[in-house]
Write a structure and sequence with these properties.
The complex is a heterodimer of chains A (417) and B (372). Chain A has 417 residues and is α+β, with helices and mostly antiparallel strands. Chain A is 37% helix and 23% strand. Chain A has helices at 45-53, 77-81, 90-96, 107-122, 144-147, 151-166, 178-185, 201-205, 218-226, 232-236, 240-247, 249-258, 288-309, 341-354, 388-405; strands at residues 2-5, 11-13, 26-28, 37-42, 62-65, 72-75, 101-103, 128-132, 135-139, 170-175, 193-195, 274-285, 311-322, 327-338, 361-373. In chain A, helix 4 (107-122) packs antiparallel against helix 6 (151-166), helix 11 crosses helix 12 (249-258) and helix 13 runs antiparallel to helix 14 (341-354). Classes of the chains: A alpha+beta (417), B alpha+beta (372).
Chain lengths: 417, 372
């Protein structure tokens, strides 16, 4: 059976240890050198970056996230042993792991690290589909001639380079489509390398829960559960038409996935549908000034990300969660798509002002959707707001300053509220 | 109640009523029209709580009374009846049904008690004047396209009707804007309107009122208070609440220092804009106007779908100018021109542009350019 040493990249034919370096980090699989669709997922990315930059944290449980009321965005593997998970409320995480060091994220550093990983991947293939800062699909089909080695070797080399040059570890899933590659990368974390070959696909999936399917959350799972579908084997027993009748267009996809089939391509420009930012308050609040400050900061965050991606949105969305968890969301479409803080803020604020006030909120979110390229945005001024042009100029100028001198070089007074 | 009425007269009355009725209604009585019969007239009243329309017409009343039935159903029946039919409407006050008979067809419609029908409270009007239908039609027709649909800026969801100092003395003025374009239309101030408070007439009211204005020479009685406005012909009375808000100060929006003047045949201009805009697939289709000595080149460049260009002879004597606009806005203002050439006054490619008909300043349009 073809095998590869993940430390020295020697290829050989099966064995428990590498014949060249003697180390045991071996990946062996019948189809190892034939598969080309991969998913790379960094291990506890934000936490790894923090540990890299502050060695004191190395042997401590580290949680990245905001405030007492916020949620865990990443937990290092030491914290995970205690049961801390991503998206867990911070108070709960601290109950499980009181000795954890909580670090507020340093997004710029993560973005920079991510950019360097991306550059390494770019050297391997142009077909990269990033899912977030710390994970991406790669299609390495046809690259063997170029690199002189099969995709599996390139992938092992990538994680080795990431560790050597950036101090970040990652796990690889290698298979024959995106769906399976993504499942595979999660099988052997951290520092994993898992392979799901075509031959064992169905056998592999059958006993597993359908919750593995990316995009099926609690609600979707409940719907499947109601239909008696818990595992892939259950799903595979269903007729294609019945699935379609019951689950609509999703039914077709389920039918294919049950057979381990996924025909989606790895495409670098999977269009983004929406972009948003939200915050859970330290304490529930109904203070209009405080909320106004939050709307501004969130609008600024969304705007920064839009500008970084050179896109804009035509619809502004406001999301509010009351103290009793009732959710309020409002959307407004703009005549002229925008990527500007000023316009996003004003649209969000106008919607906020129309929501009956008084009751405290626990969460506020601002976002945009209906994306367009930035060339198609912010093309016309507002007759009734002659000052707008000046504000936009100021915004562009302070963007320029922040680009040169760092994110904190200049801030609006209102963002300090 | 029992009455009979000519089909044509009934259709007219009921169609006005059913268009005021909101299609999606949660309060059943608001879907109904209130029919009242007395003396030799029948009146048909409908409301959405913001607008109320009352249409009176001659009828042979055998038994006075009142009831309410579904406005849409009654309208559909009457519409489908043959022309010239005599329609009789009768209810006995106890069965909860309205019997509709015409020729050899008969219907029995469910009614709701007239007492439940909300009748708009009467108001003291601070100004009463009359104006020819033709004048009001021009005021509202030429301004309504600029009404905003943005609900968060509710005070722009109508036409601001007020008294202003126009170029030729005091004027009855209508203004509408959505922040991208603005229309300002003046008419000589009718007698009795001097003390009229400025009111924002809601979009729906403008649409409903327009149906009263088809007859050029008809005199329309207008009454205005701080909270309501009323338009009446001898037969139809339309009463509407006005938008409770402050219309922004539009006067500073209208450019006064634009000197670059282009004169063009409005119809040809509109045709050319429409033609080049065809290649663009984006939602706000941007058209570039490149002006040089007596020559206008309109162009669209949409990277995803293609490019187009059209040339037009115009009167233009200033230095070269390139400026972009939303094609839809250009078409809308160009279509307001009906007698003379359209005159555009530009400043720079980032400043609002003004358009008017010849040298007539009684109707001016301002449109914001777009980066192209």
């Amino acid at each position: 059976m073809p095998a590869l040493c993940r430390d020295c990249l020697t290829r050989f034919d099966a064995g428990r240890r590498c014949p060249a370096c003697g180390r045991p980090r071996i990946v062996a699989h019948a189809e190892l050198f034939d598969l080309a669709i991969a998913h790379m997922d960094c291990d506890a990315f934000y936490a790894s970056v923090e540990k890299r930059d502050n060695p004191e944290l190395c042997d401590k449980p580290v949680i990245i996230g905001g405030g007492k009321r916020g949620v865990v965005s990443t937990a290092c593997y030491i914290a995970r042993i205690k049961g801390v998970r991503s998206a867990m409320p911070m108070f709960q995480a601290l109950k499980l792991c009181p000795e954890a060091v909580v670090v507020r994220g340093r997004m710029e550093v993560y973005v920079e690290t991510s950019r360097r990983i991306r550059a390494m991947m770019e050297e391997m293939t142009p077909a990269i589909e990033p899912l977030s800062l710390d994970e991406a699909f790669m299609d390495l089909t046809g690259t063997e001639k170029l690199h002189g080695v099969p995709p599996a070797v390139m992938l092992a080399r990538l994680t080795r380079r990431m560790q050597a040059e950036l101090g970040i570890t990652g796990s690889i899933g290698l298979s024959h489509n995106k769906f399976l590659a993504k499942i595979a990368s999660d099988l052997d974390k951290p520092r994993g390398f898992s392979v799901i070959g075509a031959a064992e696909t169905v056998e592999f999936l059958d006993p597993r829960p359908v919750g593995l399917i990316w995009g099926i959350g609690a609600v979707g799972q409940a719907a499947l559960d109601k239909a008696g579908i818990r595992t892939f084997a259950d799903l595979r027993r269903w007729d294609r038409q019945d699935l379609h009748a019951r689950f609509g267009s999703m039914g077709d996809r389920l039918w294919h996935l049950a057979r381990g089939q996924d025909h989606r391509r790895v495409s670098r420009n999977a269009p983004m549908k929406s972009l948003s930012s939200e915050t859970t308050f330290f304490e529930d609040t109904s203070d209009p000034d405080l909320l106004d400050g939050h709307i501004w900061r969130l609008a600024e965050k969304v705007s920064d990300r839009l500008k970084a991606k050179r896109i804009a949105g035509r619809v502004v969305v406001l999301k509010l969660k009351r103290a009793d968890f009732t959710l309020i969301s409002r959307r407004r479409s703009l005549e002229d798509a925008t990527q500007l803080t000023d316009r996003i803020y004003r649209a969000a604020k106008a919607m906020f002002d129309q929501v009956p006030q008084g009751k405290p909120y626990r969460l506020l979110g601002v976002g945009v959707s209906d994306m367009v390229a930035e060339d198609h945005a912010d093309r016309s001024g507002n007759l009734l707001d002659p000052q707008e042009a000046a504000r936009i100029k100021a915004e562009r100028a302070s963007d320029e300053i922040r680009r040169k001198f760092g994110a904190d070089a200049i801030v609006k007074g209102r963002s300090l509220r | 109640m029992k009455l009979s009425i000519e089909r044509a007269a009934l259709l007219k009355a009921v169609s006005q009523a059913q268009s005021v009725v909101e299609r999606r209604n949660t309060i059943p009585i608001l879907a109904n029209v209130l029919i009242e019969a007395e003396g030799d007239t029948a009146s048909f009243r409908a409301t959405d709580l913001d607008i109320e329309v009352v249409d009176k017409c001659a009828a042979q009343v055998e038994r006075a009374g009142a009831t309410t039935v579904s406005a849409v159903t009654l309208h559909e029946i009457v519409r489908k009846l043959p022309d010239g039919a005599l329609v009789s409407l009768a209810d006995d006050g106890t069965s909860g049904r309205l019997e509709v008979n015409a020729g050899r067809s008969s219907f029995s419609l469910a009614t709701l008690p007239r007492e439940d029908f909300p009748v708009m409270t009467t108001t003291e009007y601070s100004a009463n004047f009359s104006a020819p239908a033709k004048v009001l039609r021009r005021l509202f027709d030429k301004s309504k396209f600029a009404i905003s649909t943005e609900e968060t800026r509710y005070y722009l969801n109508g036409v601001y009707m007020h008294v202003a100092d126009g170029e030729e003395g005091r004027a009855l003025r209508c203004v509408a804007t959505d922040g991208h374009r603005l229309a300002r239309v003046d008419a000589p101030l009718p007698q009795g309107a001097e003390n009229m408070p400025g009111v924002i007439v809601p979009r729906k009211t403008v649409g409903e009122m327009r149906k009263l204005l088809d007859d050029d020479d008809m005199s329309i009685a207008v009454s205005v208070s701080e909270t309501k406005v009323r338009f009446a012909t001898p037969d139809i009375t339309l009463t509407s609440k006005v938008i409770d808000g402050t219309f922004p100060d539009y006067t500073r929006v209208i450019p006064t220092g634009n000197t670059r003047r282009m004169e063009v045949d409005a119809a040809e201009f509109a045709k050319a804009v429409d033609l080049v805009a065809t290649v663009s697939s984006e939602r706000s289709r941007a058209v570039k106007l490149a002006l040089d000595e007596d020559r206008l080149v309109l162009s669209v460049n949409a990277p995803d779908s293609g490019a187009g260009e059209a040339e037009l002879a115009v009167a233009y004597g200033d230095e070269r100018l390139e400026i972009g606009f939303n094609a839809k806005y250009l078409l809308e203002i160009a279509s307001q021109v009906d007698r003379e050439n359209a005159v555009f006054l530009f400043n720079s490619s980032g400043d609002p542009t003004l358009m008017r008909e010849g040298n007539d300043t009684s109707a001016v349009y301002v449109v914001m350019p777009m980066r192209v």
